[in-house]
Write a structure and sequence with these properties.
homodimer; alpha+beta; 27 helices; ligase (chains A, B); aminoacyl-trna synthetase (chains A, B); ATP binding (chains A, B)
């Protein structure tokens, strides 16, 4: 069999331990598919270079071990999300967001829009999802946006080639451990992990084979279809269900295809990213921006990828919300950013490519200024956005101890990309790529410009014209062609290719001898003699008033669903000790929580209900979402229910309220309460919900209330 | 040829005048397709029952005639919207929203969310666009969501059958007028009106033929495919380009189809509406709402329809944003609404079905209370939403003199719908259906429940159990069947069908005679004698603790793109007299305008620019979007540019600002200015942008400023 690299020196050998591999949900080709990995969210990566240390830190903010099954079951029960069309059996990779998830998503988006679009005067656009074939042909998606799949010839089952190889080899390694009597860490059954469940048999392998399997698994992301096919043959990998060897892997394009219009002739795709709509509108956007550079466009919208085997809940789905920025910058002048000084001292957790090359995952913490100065990050504009992404994640409540920026290695990036970093968030599924931030150079605008001829360029009026002296050529067209006959073009090309120095020499020759001789490979004797009747070479003054260039694109690209899921995991914890059943709490920041206030009448006393209704009305006027829970459950139970929804504040209406209008305000995480008159409490809520004050501030301002503490805790 | 109705008595004969037909962009089947028209936005109707009087009122708020071409060219230039992928030649029916349109859309959506979702505690969901085949098979879309198309056998051109018939007959009528020497009102060339451009020839028709053609055109919406095919044959309608008669019309399903997953086996569609995702989640939503009824779900998202011939700009497109509410209500108790009293005095402009039946389009203005009391509108809940829709349209700045609620006629509604009204907005394209509001009865939940077995029902715990006494039957199963042999089931059915009175009589007979005789049609002698060994009839107590029912759905359904377009037309006007070139203005309410404030430094003096930047920052903190225009254009020109974007306020920074911090505030429509210190002006802007105060209020509070008036006007 043909040799293919068993170990790619460019990829660290991490994740070889099956236990640390468990959460390795994907497996992204890199050198095999520069296109896709160049745009990180194209192939939403869940990287496998976590290590035990990372996973060991995987506890809630309160130090509890995360029980994902308990959490996910709660999230579904409280309708953060739910499999779409479940009453019809549901479809893999399609999820609906219920009221809680939808509200959370809306608040994340609103924060994103304020943090990026409004703050930086970005030009937001809303482009169509339906995209004609030609656009994605030009962008490269039609040819390269694919995964490798193979088919079981017996039962027709379709397998994702890399997942298949991985599953069988892992099962063999597990069987080997069993045979050796080693402890096998049992992987938890994960209903959303669709990777083929392969039963292991206790068969001892040679030590060399174990090592080889481990090496293959460590770089499973790097194989292309041929290589995966060779692995299947070499190791005789069979589908355990049928005993058959799958067919050789073929590429499967991940774009959903459809036909636009009644003829069925116009092929279209559902976009796998929002970027192309922004690029194709570049000329109009520049015009709208009155030709001012730099500027950015932005877009929030659904994208689609026809995953072969969707899994890991919200992390690998077929329909998802993206928010993307395309920042257009002059490639000359070092890509400076004029607001860089505002963020230069922000410290980021960086995992650079050198570290990864050395097989490590140790992060370093650097101010973004130092990172740019030290050339860890390529340029100021890219660095500016990395810091802004960091601030955004912090603002929405991501646990910043579970964030790192991982640099793409050379073999992960497309040839045209300058530098690329992913903001990865640590979850129980591993390090999840949630935001990509790439310097895509002039690639995108160039390919569309070349294909369509549209002027996707900036014409910069030069304040002082660019004046220079240079040797220029003037042909006597009528005589030049006939003089060289069929070699005319070749000779002309040779002359055009001359340097300024050569031209100066030729000009001298022309003046002195009336002609010059030039080497022209490909013509009769390899030389041509050009007389002064055919050409003039003059030292002229060139004045340029306009500079034309194709801007480079810095592209921060956010997978909202992944951020949302990670946010849930980062803010989830449970309350209650041995006696109690553990009760889930989600500690969203008040700005992000879907519902801000729970209104709880103490009992079903009929005096309470109009007060509750009016309170809701007043909160609405303040733009604060609230819900009334006037069910017959105990106050404690009603609060618990809303702790699961992440509702940060609770207002109790009791008999005292009827008497003097005072209400109690309870904070979700501490379960502490204060009591004051309605106006003061509402003002306190408003201030906390807008982020102007914290609960601690309010505790300093309003008197504590203890009476119902026992029941509420 | 077979007879088919040439005039449907249920449809008014309006729009027969070609002049009033011009803007009749579509043509919706009704009786032919009860399904689609039952859900009005399914088949976004542009109704043809406008009349000259309606169109005569078609002026701007300032009384100017609307020049649509001028307006639309401005809207594209200022990037409200633009054909998608224009550099690739664009695709019919796909539009991108630029920064202005995107901002406008976001503000409409935000207002919608506050007005409906937040105000009424609706459960917002975000369901997938991708939907498996089976769901739309059940809902009826797979079989019935279609238009009729035919094909030219010579050149393969695909024609929408109703449009084709319409175009040819209109051309013949026009030719007739020419031949008769009558004045022909020339239709303006409309680049977006894709209806076949048919050249008329001056050929005089018989008077009877003219009448027949006009009748056909008046009800072109009512024909099904067979009927359209018969019209083509009867009138010998040929494609002018080839002279060929098109093939018989066949249905073309308007859903975009795709394949989900790698096998290609799982057919899916892009949803043509957001409703089905809400219905299929009903049981979970009810659970989330703690079993409380009534409640509503809501959804904002893209929907897709593969129109055969998209046209009329944003009004008939293939990808569009919808906002839909599904309000679930108990069918018993008259569908009362407990907040009805809050809106009962709102007066609506109604075009009811009786008026339309009589061939008229005269509207009546009625309070919604009177409309419900008088049974013009079927019930309180439907009426409540009509009034809330009215308030919403008013809030976003729709010209309420160009709004009417048109009731569906019996032949437009599906058999299961109780009542349906469309909010139609008058534009230069005619009356545009922008919001549908239908009482869909229990149809949707019932079909999904029947198909899947999912409990899409409400189980209402009865406070006091429903206790009643009634005569019940108890069979001696072992003996009953054998006693009647093959007639057993028939006899049993006859007994089951008895009334309480009959059973009482039979019970008496049993007691007295030991048997009773019952008529059983279909058995030997038409009677059966049933003895007391076979059956007992007892007077028993029945106690029901739970009532189970399928809720009815009231569905307000908003086409956001259509509302957005109408809003643009309703707020557009031009400023400037003879001397000046007319300058466009869009008078959005401040709450809706995409950008709220334009910041204009008087000149390029370098003292101004830091002030402008700080001002922008302060406005951002207040959540108010602004733009700085520091170009070298005159102040007047810069304001003009932003009048075209509908920016309501302008702040000028001048030398006085540098001295004392005062700034001028200019209002877009009046071009009047006030001057005050920065804090006061910002507070004024905040109050106007949130809708708390009007410009008139502010003029009363802050001193007027006249100095730059001449330049600015």
């Amino acid at each position: 069999m043909k040799a293919f690299k068993l170990a790619n020196p460019l990829r660290p050998l991490v994740g070889t331990n099956p236990a640390s591999n468990f959460w390795k949900v994907t497996t992204k080709p890199t050198s095999a598919r520069p296109f896709t990995s160049s745009h990180p969210l194209h192939r939403a990566v869940i990287t496998n270079n976590s290590n035990k240390k990372d996973m060991a830190t995987l506890t809630t903010k309160t130090g509890q071990t995360i029980d994902r099954q308990v959490m996910e079951s709660m999230l579904r029960r409280r309708m953060f999300y739910t499999p779409a069309f479940e009453i019809y059996g549901s479809v893999a990779g399609l999820f609906d967001y219920g009221p809680s998830g939808c509200g959370l998503q809306a608040n994340i988006i609103e924060t994103w829009r304020k943090h990026f679009v409004l703050e930086e005067d970005m030009l937001e656009v809303d482009c169509t999802v339906l995209t004609p074939h030609e656009v994605f042909k030009t962008s490269g998606h039609v040819d390269k946006f694919a995964d490798w799949m193979c088919k079981d010839p017996k039962n027709g089952e379709i397998l994702r080639a890399d997942h298949f190889v991985e599953a069988i080899l892992e099962a063999r390694l597990k069987g080997d451990k069993e045979a050796r009597g080693q402890k096998v860490e049992e992987k938890e059954a994960d209903p959303k992990k669709k990777k083929k469940k392969v039963k292991s048999e206790a068969v001892k392998l040679d030590d060399a084979v174990v090592k080889e399997y481990e090496e293959v698994l460590a770089q499973i992301d790097n194989y292309d279809g041929d290589q995966l096919g060779q692995l299947i043959k070499k190791y005789e990998l069979k589908n355990p269900e049928t005993g058959a060897e799958p067919s050789p892997p073929v590429p499967f394009n991940l774009m959903f295809q459809t036909a636009i219009g009644p003829s069925g002739q116009l092929a279209g795709y559902l976009r796998p990213e929002t970027a192309q709509g922004q690029f194709t509108n570049f000329a109009k956007l520049l015009e709208f921006n009155m030709q001012n550079m730099p500027f950015a466009s932005a877009s929030i919208g659904k994208s689609y990828r026809n995953e072969i085997s969707p899994r890991a809940g919200l992390l690998r789905v077929r329909e998802f919300l993206m928010a993307e920025i395309e920042h257009y910058v002059d490639p000359e002048g070092g890509k400076k950013h004029d607001r860089f000084s505002e963020i230069e001292n922000i410290e980021l957790t960086l995992l650079d490519k050198e570290t990864q090359l050395s097989g490590k995952t140790d992060v370093k913490t650097l101010s973004i200024r130092k990172a740019v100065e030290g050339k860890v990050v390529d340029n100021e504009t890219l660095g500016y956005f990395l810091a802004r992404i960091h601030l955004f994640l912090e603002k929405i409540g991501v646990d910043m101890s579970k964030v790192r920026f991982r640099q793409h290695m050379a073999n992960e990036m497309a040839h045209y990309a300058c530098d690329c970093w992913d903001a990865e968030l640590l979850t129980s599924y591993g390090w999840i790529e949630c935001v990509g931030c790439a310097d895509r150079s002039a690639y995108d605008l160039t390919v569309h410009k070349n294909k369509t001829g549209a002027p996707l360029v900036v014409r910069q009026k030069l304040e002082t014209p660019n004046v220079r002296q240079e040797w220029t050529l003037e042909y006597n067209k009528k005589k030049f062609g006939p003089a060289f006959k069929k070699d005319g073009k070749t000779v002309e090309a040779a002359i055009e290719a001359t340097t300024q120095e050569q031209r100066e020499a030729f000009a001298k020759e022309l003046q002195e001898n009336g002609s010059f001789t030039i080497d022209v490979p490909g013509v009769a004797d390899g030389k041509a003699s050009v007389g002064k009747d055919l050409i003039e070479i003059k030292y002229s003054t060139i004045t340029e008033h306009v500079r034309e260039y194709t801007p480079n694109v810095i592209e921060p690209s956010f997978g909202i669903g992944r951020i949302l899921y990670s946010l849930l995991e980062h803010n989830f914890w449970t309350r209650g000790d041995g006696a109690d059943e553990a009760r889930g709490v989600i500690s969203f920041p008040p700005t992000i929580a879907p519902t801000k206030v729970l209104i709880v009448p103490l009992s079903s006393n009929k005096d309470f209900s109009p007060i509750a209704r009016k309170l809701g009305q007043k909160l609405r006027t303040l733009g604060i979402s609230s819900r009334v829970d006037d069910s017959s459950a105990t106050i404690g139970k009603r609060y618990s229910r809303n702790d699961e929804l992440g509702t940060p504040f609770g207002i109790t209406i009791d008999f005292q309220t009827v008497k003097d209008g005072s209400i109690t305000l309870r904070e979700r995480d501490s379960t502490k309460q204060v009591r004051a008159d309605e106006a003061k409490v509402l003002e306190a809520v408003r201030e906390m919900v807008t982020g102007a004050k914290t609960w601690k501030d309010i505790q300093g301002e309003l008197p504590a209330f203890e009476a119902q503490e026992l029941e509420v805790r």
